[in-house]
Amino acid sequence: MPTFVHTDKCDGCAGREVVACVDICPHDLMALDTERMKAYNQEAEQCWECQCCVKACPQDAVEVRPYQDVVPMGGAVIPKRTDESITWTIKFRDGEIKRFTFPVRTTAVGSIDPYGGKPQPGDLDSPNLFTEDGKTLPTI
Ligand code: SF4
Ligand code: SF4
């Protein structure tokens, strides 16, 4: 149940800083055919269906076909993400369509400091994680 790319919509992220689906896939599955400037899933059976590439694609060109017990016989679940919200379009097999929109963040875009308040990276040879000070390791 892999992702697939609507090639009529995909523009290969031409002119953008990164190829969004390739950049975001945690499993390194999405690839770009640089001759055609079209993306594709190069190892479809490995897809986790995490929907990251679906949500990241600025062209809405990627879709995941969910399992039949989730959306049987032609149903579809299609996310569309903006900076503020995500809208899920649910297509039922009888043609009915429902949309649900949820906020996706409580902070301004670009305002998160993921390492704020964390210590600087230290000794790479140390057995401690970088958030551990060496005094809190459990004893066995
Ligand atoms: S993110 Fe979308 S538009 Fe960009 S290469 Fe992938 S499928 Fe194509
Ligand atoms: S759904 Fe997730 S695992 Fe599958 S191709 Fe997209 S980003 Fe990769």
Question: Can you characterise this structure?
Answer:
- By secondary structure, this protein is mainly beta.
- It folds into 2 domains: 1-65, Alpha-Beta Plaits; 67-111, no CATH class.
- The chain is 7% helix and 24% strand.
- It contains 2 helices and 7 strands, in the order βαββαββββ.
- A 3-stranded antiparallel beta sheet has the order 5-6-7. Strands 1-4 form a two-stranded antiparallel ribbon.
- Strand 5 and strand 6 form a beta hairpin.
- The longest helix is centred in the first third of the chain and has 5 residues, at 20-24.
- The mean pLDDT is 85.
Architecture blueprint of SSEs:
Blueprint: E1 3-5, H1 20-24, E2 30-33, E3 38-41, H2 52-56, E4 62-64, E5 76-81, E6 85-91, E7 97-103
Antiparallel strand pairs: 1-4, 2-3, 5-6, 6-7
In short:
This protein is mainly beta.
Work out the count of structural domains: 2
The run of helices and strands is EHEEHEEEE
Number of strands: 7
* CATH hierarchy: architecture of the largest domain: 2-Layer Sandwich
CATH class of the largest domain: Alpha Beta
What summary fits the major beta sheet? 3 strands, antiparallel
